[in-house]
Amino acid sequence: MRLYAGNLPETTTKQDLHNMFAKYGILSDFSLTKYNKRAFSILHVDAGALAILELEGKEISGSSIKVAQAVDRYSSKKLEDITVKIRDLENDFKNIFEISNLLLGTVESGYFVELNPKWTLYLGWTLDELRRVPFLSFVHPEDKEITDKVHLEARSGSDIKDFVNRYVTREGEYKRIKWNSSSIVKNGKTYFQAEACDDI
Questions:
Q1: DSSP reduced 3-state for 138
Q2: Structural domain boundaries, residue 128
Q3: Could you tell me the pTM of the whole model?
Q4: Among 3, 23, 72, 78, which residue has the least CB neighbours within 10 Å?
């Protein structure tokens, strides 16, 4: 029987997989693909039903593994192709994120989480410094109340249109940032884009 074994720890090796399925009559030729801090495999075993019964949901290094009968659309080659495409897309988005002239990032629980390098170029703070304290700490005192209100609206999924506030630079000056985008809220994070109004 062809099996899919997924949600394996990233540290899983082919030898680990072989030892795990040896009692079920594993064949020597099988794949092991690692992606996003997890591993998965397509493999053939003689006693597939028993392997599913005994291994499905088993805890290994903090991971509850998935063992099920593989279907044709999840062939080893197709899974590898899909993984490569996903990685390529992630690299493309990462490159766009890094070189964008917009101020891009995410906010969660009042703190910046991901930020692109444009923030450092514009305000002078390192990305770690910007993430270390609540983002309102960088907002001009006169803009804090309205900024907090707009942030709450964005968290509820409302669009931000032509909102401008001021952020303090590392040198103690204030620069304007224009927020004019549709916010996306996912898993507690608000994804945003903004525009630097003043020349660097």
A1: helix
A2: 100-196
A3: 0.54
A4: 72
